[in-house]
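Design request, tokens follow.
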């Protein structure tokens, strides 16, 4: 699988993605449909459904878990991305993929116009292992049931993916900064939730 061919229109590729898909699409089938696309596009496709609200579907858990597994393979420069059977057999409706394409493609087009090759030093300095670790951490945050906790990590993965595809070091730096902010936000939400629950249950209170 290619690492990051430059100047690839990810928005156009996303628009074409639902074409020819069956009514129910397993994650294995979706990954197979992506074929030899750049890993950046694969990451983007699995990140977007975690950002878009999908009532009744645990998209954050499903796609966050898939992203975590794919990022581990990215770290070790796997020649082909695969999902374990229990996850690859999970299916989503074609309408979800269509919704993802319809909502995300116009925004990606606007974002792509802002991106341009601005060095590839940062990506080479960090390398697939370090970037894979960042994506893995974001994927874990996406999969966790944190209120509003999957949006920022999902956007982070999206920006990093597009930065890698367009060889834009400035965008990659922005994605890495956003990753730190995402982690801090999620930790704050976890701490705030724990403080609220522990206060309500009376944990930590001293008995007079």
């Amino acid at each position: 699988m290619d690492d990051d061919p430059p100047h690839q229109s990810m928005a156009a590729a996303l628009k074409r993605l639902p074409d020819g898909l069956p009514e129910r699409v397993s994650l294995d089938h979706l990954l197979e449909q992506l074929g030899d696309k750049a890993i950046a596009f694969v990451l983007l496709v699995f990140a977007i459904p975690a950002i878009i609200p999908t009532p009744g579907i645990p998209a954050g858990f499903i796609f966050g878990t898939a992203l975590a597994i794919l990022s581990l393979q990215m770290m070790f420069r796997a020649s082909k991305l695969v999902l374990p059977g229990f996850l690859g057999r999970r299916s989503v409706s074609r309408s979800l993929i269509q919704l993802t394409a319809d909502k995300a493609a116009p925004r990606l087009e606007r974002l792509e116009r802002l991106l341009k090759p601005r060095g590839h030093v940062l990506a080479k300095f960090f390398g697939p292992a370090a970037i894979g670790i960042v994506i893995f951490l974001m994927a874990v945050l996406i999969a966790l049931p944190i209120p509003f906790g999957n949006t920022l990590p999902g956007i982070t993965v999206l920006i990093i993916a597009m930065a890698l595809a367009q060889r834009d070091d400035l965008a990659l730096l922005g994605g890495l900064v956003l990753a730190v902010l995402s982690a801090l936000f999620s930790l704050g939400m976890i701490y705030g939730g724990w403080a609220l629950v522990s206060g309500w249950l009376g944990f930590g209170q001293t008995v007079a």
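Comment from the thread starter after seeing the answer: thanks! The first strand starts at residue 24 and ends at 26.
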